[in-house]
């Protein structure tokens, strides 16, 4: 039996020292009780155990059906939106399959390939804007590169008008900010639904060739297939998941390549590809560190003798699992673009595996290649260890990412 702490490990809502926290979680075995902003859950860090749970019918994402504490917690928990939304993120069984089928057409290989030219154009425009700045100016690449690319791409996919994109960015940032109080999170959620309602109203008046119009048509033509709440929350899921996670992937990729010049040299010399660089970034610094929540449908016995009891909550701790030494050996904490196996859980696993993974990979690859081709010598203004985390136990990025694009100019 694995030794467990006498009280749950309290996760830092600001994610200030994520790697030390991951080491602590792994030290207690495959899973350990943790406190997630006042809610107890099992943090699962063993990749084999986590993959098995993510694929098991004994694990649900439907809090209403399988979490006895739902009605109590949802009233005051700052992360209530993460468990209360009604879309495929929180669906289980047949409901999940139904909702996933509705979104799948937007993420077919053909549709994603068709976005390649759009992404290339956006990246080139952003790089041209950066190139026009004074050579000695320091630039926040999170603000001026990592943010605008995915918000423009998801805006194109979902048909979000330009004048609404800034509103969506602000409220989606709030969804991932786990330092907010319950009152602040509730106010952000109310604003978020106002913004979503405005988008739905505009698309009803003027539908287009986009995913939002398609979902509205599905709802309006057959109200029994997609409820009002499912329509609204499905739009929220696609917009938020397609935006914030890609921002953080680009952010972390820039930091890793700028501070590991030997690895950047491997890519530029053809000893590794830009795809390798993105995959190793996703493994080492996944955009989602912890993903709340799942629930035990039945008692679940773990290999080390622990038991997750029916109704208990489960936290998928991807950041800790991705660096597990049993998975990637003694070099699990190293950034190595030539690593033969870059297997990771950055996009989840099993039936809830991220539909937008190919799009995120394309955006990340195009962005990093374009940036370092244009500015091969870019450097961080401060050492990587001095960058301030974004302030979230969920998302894994920085508040700002200031660089000098041409440090030798």
UniProtKB/TrEMBL annotation:
The protein, known as: Cytochrome P450
GO MF annotation terms: heme binding; iron ion binding; monooxygenase activity; oxidoreductase activity, acting on paired donors, with incorporation or reduction of molecular oxygen
Tree of life domain: Bacteria
Entry keyword Ion transport: no
Keywords: Heme, Iron, Metal-binding, Monooxygenase, Oxidoreductase
Iron-sulfur listed as a keyword: no
Xref: Pfam families: p450
SUPFAM superfamilies to which the protein is assigned, alphabetical: Cytochrome P450 (SSF48264)
Native species: Streptomyces cinereoruber
Family statement drawn from the similarity comment of this UniProt entry: Belongs to the cytochrome P450 family.
């Amino acid at each position: 039996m694995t030794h467990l702490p006498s009280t749950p490990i309290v996760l830092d809502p600001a994610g200030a020292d994520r790697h030390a926290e991951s080491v602590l979680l792994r030290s207690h075995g495959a899973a350990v009780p943790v406190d997630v902003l006042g809610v107890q859950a099992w943090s699962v860090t063993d990749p084999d155990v986590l993959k098995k749970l993510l694929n098991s019918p004994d694990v649900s994402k439907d809090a209403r059906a399988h979490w006895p504490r739902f009605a109590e917690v949802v009233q005051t928990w700052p992360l209530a939106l993460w468990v209360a939304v009604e879309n495929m993120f929180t669906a289980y069984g047949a409901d999940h399959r139904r909702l996933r089928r509705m979104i799948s057409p937007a993420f077919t290989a053909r549709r994603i390939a068709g976005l390649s030219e759009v992404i290339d154009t956006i990246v080139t425009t952003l790089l041209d804007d950066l190139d026009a700045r004074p050579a000695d100016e320091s630039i926040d690449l999170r603000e001026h590169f990592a943010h605008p690319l995915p918000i423009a791409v998801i805006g194109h996919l979902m048909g979000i008008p330009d004048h609404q994109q800034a509103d969506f960015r602000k409220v989606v940032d709030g969804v991932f900010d786990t330092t907010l109080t319950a009152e602040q999170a509730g106010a952000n959620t109310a604003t978020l639904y106002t913004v979503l309602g405005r988008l739905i109203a505009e698309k009803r008046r003027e539908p287009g060739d986009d995913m939002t119009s398609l979902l509205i048509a599905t709802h309006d033509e057959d109200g029994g297939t997609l409820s009002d709440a499912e329509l609204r929350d499905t739009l929220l899921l696609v917009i938020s998941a397609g935006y914030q996670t890609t921002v953080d992937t680009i952010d972390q990729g820039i930091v890793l390549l700028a501070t590991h010049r030997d690895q950047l040299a491997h890519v530029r010399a053809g000893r590794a590809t830009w795809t390798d660089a993105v995959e190793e970034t996703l493994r080492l610094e996944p955009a989602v560190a912890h993903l709340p929540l799942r629930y035990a449908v039945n008692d679940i016995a773990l290999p080390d003798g622990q038991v997750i009891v029916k109704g208990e909550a489960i936290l998928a701790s991807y950041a800790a699992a991705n660096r597990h030494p049993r998975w990637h050996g003694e070099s699990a904490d190293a950034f190595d673009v030539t690593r033969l196996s870059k297997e990771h859980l950055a996009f989840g696993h099993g039936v809830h595996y991220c539909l937008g993974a190919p799009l995120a990979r394309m955006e990340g690859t195009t962005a990093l290649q374009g940036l370092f081709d244009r500015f091969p010598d870019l450097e961080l203004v401060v050492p990587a260890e001095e960058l301030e985390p974004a302030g979230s136990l969920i998302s894994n990025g920085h508040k700002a990412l200031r660089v000098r694009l041409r440090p030798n100019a």
